[in-house]
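Hi all, posting the design record for the shared folder.

TITLE: backbone redesign
STEP: 1 of 1
STRUCTURE INPUT:
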């Protein structure tokens, strides 16, 4: 009996079939049951839907869906606005409301390349729709993901070069393997024996040439990236350096150290060790868990100076993109991305408003540059802020709230940063085009961005043309040559990164020949603008600043790929540009200067020597075995020469005999290096991509992207 009553209760609770549309039922209004109903027409809703009516036929798919979620997505896309009610309750189905039609997943493939010289690389190929021969390429190495704009993706242009050295790196008895092993142990020992700066010192002993360091910072870095108020920082810096009893806060001590570190990078490499100490001490002090007091403009200035110093002195420069993300969020938390929002005081003076605008302007610049360097998305867009550019005012004008901005043609201490701000939108679009996952990556979009960039660059060049002339008396305290050189470097790197993904197919397909011309011309201009300079500070930046060193590697790779393609093309008849050959020779000298300037990584110099020897051998028309022999001899000579520098450096540090330095370095590595290093043994035993001639010709290694067959034939014909 009780069971029958329970069944009757269930029957009484059963609802009638729904005859109203979903929207009218949710709004609890009368529905005329038409399709669409009158209520939905009045509300301009054309997707009126009924729950119990048969759904429209599903569209025919080219391929069957892989999961149930795919089917749900395709059916919910037609009724996203109204068909959000749950079957059992008149409530919104959040999952259904937010389900969107996912874009088609691009075809992906991951190739693994194991190199004895550098470790394991995973090359990610992602085909573009409608472009079978052009795809997005990114590389993961160790624990890092390098997007398309990262310089390491350029190695795809010269990957066949590594096949020359691989047999020697796999042979433990070869002279090249022994030299590389010694250089690795020496480099690790030099890094391990570097002085430690923990705990952080809160004192600062000014160097003897502190005046020159401050002047160098103001005339170069501060002229481009406005961070500080020059009159205030000059007054306080002089007081700190001249009066031992001068009372100052610790934050300014940190800023003084960073100013000297940046100034040293722009003037002299003799203070490299001191600059490293100043940067590390500042980094340790800024990492203190004092979060509340870090939300000040002075702390924000210190963080910006730290990032600029890291890039200049090459300390953790590959992690700047990560730190910039934190800097952007800290600035947004303080309201710098909103114009007119100045914390708790809406009626702030002109000084506060302009300093906030300057800092946000510099943060945007760091975000774009670090994104280009790291190959990561910029994590900020033009719709995320409404802060105006800084006003065209000198620092002295900020003392009065009634100061009016000067005309645009009048040069002030903020003019350069204002001019660079006008190029931010197109540069940001280029970085997003290269590194965003949603980017189409098509060639037509690249050409459109190229046109927009050239327009913005032309306007900037005309605007700064009077500034670049030394006869302009209104320009003071600015190193004109160094600043103009830096601007050209910053901007032309975007043009190089934009066209570089199309260089590989451009070497064999004429439809991409414009990109080949742009890339080669840009590399030539970058080298001639930056590296041959002397006496302007730029030549010293080359041996320290990370972006300059990355550019040098890209220039070597791009020009070598272009020259080797021309030498292999019978149309050119072995005739190549002599000015490009001179750059390869100069690259050997510049990479050698990096090692002499306390660099411990010898791979750049090794690769420069290898490339130059390969191109010279091809020009002489040598046979394939002789080409390989010439390259191996150049690599061995480079490694032995670099090893000698590292030995002398460690000898000076340990005050020991040269004959015992290498054994000391090997002992410092412990039993895990050499024979006991499993990773090193794996590198010698595994050879699946950059293999021998049979492996390449027989295609037993990893498959390449469509259209890369020419590259295999090109490499096999030359080297194997």
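Okay, here is what came back for every position:
SEQUENCE:
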């Amino acid at each position: 009996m009780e069971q029958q009553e329970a069944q009757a209760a269930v029957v009484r609770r059963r609802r009638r079939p729904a005859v109203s549309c979903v929207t009218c039922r949710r709004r609890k209004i009368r529905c005329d049951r038409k399709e669409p109903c009158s209520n939905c027409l009045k509300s301009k809703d054309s997707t009126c839907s009924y729950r119990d009516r048969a759904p429209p036929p599903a569209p025919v798919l080219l391929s069957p869906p892989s999961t149930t979620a795919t089917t749900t997505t395709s059916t919910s896309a037609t009724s996203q606005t109204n068909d959000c009610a749950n079957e059992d309750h008149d409530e919104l189905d959040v999952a259904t409301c937010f389900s969107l039609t996912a874009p088609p997943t691009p075809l992906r493939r991951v190739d693994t390349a194991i190199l004895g010289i550098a470790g394991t690389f995973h090359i990610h190929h992602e085909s573009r729709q409608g472009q079978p021969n052009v795809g997005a390429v990114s590389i993961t190495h160790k624990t890092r993901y390098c997007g398309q704009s990262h310089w390491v993706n350029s190695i795809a242009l010269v990957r066949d070069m590594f096949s020359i050295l691989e047999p020697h790196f796999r042979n433990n008895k070869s002279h090249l393997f022994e030299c590389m092993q010694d250089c690795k142990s020496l480099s690790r020992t030099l890094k391990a024996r570097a002085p430690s700066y923990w705990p952080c010192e809160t004192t600062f002993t000014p160097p003897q040439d502190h005046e020159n360091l401050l002047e160098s910072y103001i005339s170069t870095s501060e002229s481009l990236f406005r961070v500080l108020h020059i009159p205030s920082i000059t007054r306080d810096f002089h007081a700190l350096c001249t009066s031992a009893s001068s009372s100052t806060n610790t934050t300014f001590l940190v800023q003084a150290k960073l100013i000297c570190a940046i100034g040293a990078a722009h003037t002299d490499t003799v203070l490299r060790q001191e600059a490293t100490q100043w940067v590390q001490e500042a980094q340790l002090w800024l990492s203190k868990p004092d979060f509340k007091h870090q939300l000040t403009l002075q702390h924000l200035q210190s963080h910006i100076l730290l990032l600029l110093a890291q890039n200049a002195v090459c300390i953790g420069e590959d992690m700047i993109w990560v730190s910039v993300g934190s800097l952007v969020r800290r600035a947004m938390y303080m309201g710098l991305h909103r114009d007119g929002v100045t914390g708790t005081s809406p009626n702030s003076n002109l000084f506060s408003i302009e300093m906030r605008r300057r800092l946000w302007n510099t943060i945007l610049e760091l975000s774009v540059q670090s994104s280009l360097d790291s190959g990561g998305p910029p994590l900020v867009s033009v719709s995320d802020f409404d802060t105006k550019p800084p006003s065209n005012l000198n620092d002295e004008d900020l003392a009065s709230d009634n100061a009016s901005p000067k005309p645009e043609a009048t040069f002030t201490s903020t003019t350069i940063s204002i001019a660079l701000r006008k190029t931010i939108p197109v540069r940001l679009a280029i970085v997003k085009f290269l590194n965003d996952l949603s980017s189409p990556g098509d060639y037509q979009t690249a050409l459109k961005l190229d046109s927009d960039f050239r327009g913005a660059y032309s306007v900037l060049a005309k605007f700064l043309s009077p500034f670049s002339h030394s006869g302009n008396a209104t320009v003071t305290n600015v190193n004109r040559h160094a600043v103009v050189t830096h601007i050209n470097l910053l901007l032309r790197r975007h043009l190089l990164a934009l066209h570089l993904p199309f260089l590989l197919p451009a070497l064999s397909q004429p439809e991409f020949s414009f990109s080949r011309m742009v890339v080669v011309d840009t590399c030539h201009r970058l080298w001639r603008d930056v590296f041959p300079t002397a006496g302007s500070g730029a030549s010293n930046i080359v041996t320290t600043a990370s972006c300059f060193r990355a550019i040098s590697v890209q220039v070597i790779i791009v020009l070598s790929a272009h020259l080797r393609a021309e030498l292999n093309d019978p149309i050119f008849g072995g005739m190549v540009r002599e000015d490009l050959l001179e750059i390869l020779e100069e690259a050997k000298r510049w990479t050698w200067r990096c090692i002499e300037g306390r660099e411990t990584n010898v791979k750049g110099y090794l690769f420069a020597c290898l490339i130059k020897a390969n191109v010279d051998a091809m020009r002489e028309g040598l046979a394939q075995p002789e080409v390989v022999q010439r390259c191996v001899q150049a690599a061995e000579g480079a490694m032995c020469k670099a090893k000698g520098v590292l030995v002398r450096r460690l000898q000076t540090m340990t005050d020991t005999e040269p004959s015992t330095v290498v054994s000391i370095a090997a002992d410092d590595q412990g039993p895990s290096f050499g024979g006991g290093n499993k990773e090193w043994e794996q590198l010698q035993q595994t050879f699946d991509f950059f293999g021998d001639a049979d492996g390449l010709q027989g295609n037993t290694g990893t498959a390449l992207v469509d259209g890369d067959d020419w590259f295999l034939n090109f490499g096999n014909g030359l080297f194997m």
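COMMENT: The mean pLDDT is 74.
Let me know if anyone wants the other runs.
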